[in-house]
Amino acid sequence: MAQYFEVHPENPQVRLLKQTVALLEKGSIVAVPTDSSYALVCHLDDKAAADNLRRIRGVDDKHHLTLLCRDLSELASYARVDNRQYRLLKLATPGPYTFILEASKEVPRRVSHPSRKTIGLRVPEHKVLQELLALHGSALLATTLIAPGETDPLNDAHDIRDRYEHQIAAVLDSGACAQEPTTVIDLTGDEPEIIRQGRGDLARVGL
Predict the structure, then answer these.
(1) Tens digit of pLDDT for each residue in 116-128?
(2) Is 207 part of any domain?
């Protein structure tokens, strides 16, 4: 049964976050709040965990997974970023935007898109998740928590635990998230391409 950690949204209990990090380091999947909706996360370097993440979410290897990063400098270590892309990223981070970029060698090939060698990256603006990333010490592999066959992300921690109690190790509950996925922008072409209009305002990034 999934553990249930109720954490304060502004002053999350370090003890509970450390327990969450320990679960992730063992290869577990955890549901965490973000500034857009709840997400499933796992350790980047654990193949079995990444496969399990896709299985729970009901997506194949052509679905872009996302790396949640602490800041823009960490994001840039996982992607090839030119000056034009960097300027746009700086406008949007932290915030509810996911960017599709060419993966660097720091990203295992098995988690990037199999033909394009691209990966989703973002810097979330959520206190609990930022603290978790800081304690973990590196990016987490993530996917928006949308149940197979549904279109809206899950937003209630109790509902998530009830649905996934035998598939994930823990749920971090810091209250309801904004029930809207991130805006996804593909930066690999000559011009930015909007893949999904979500919570992130396009005007903020000049699009």
Answers:
(1) 899 999 999 999 9
(2) no
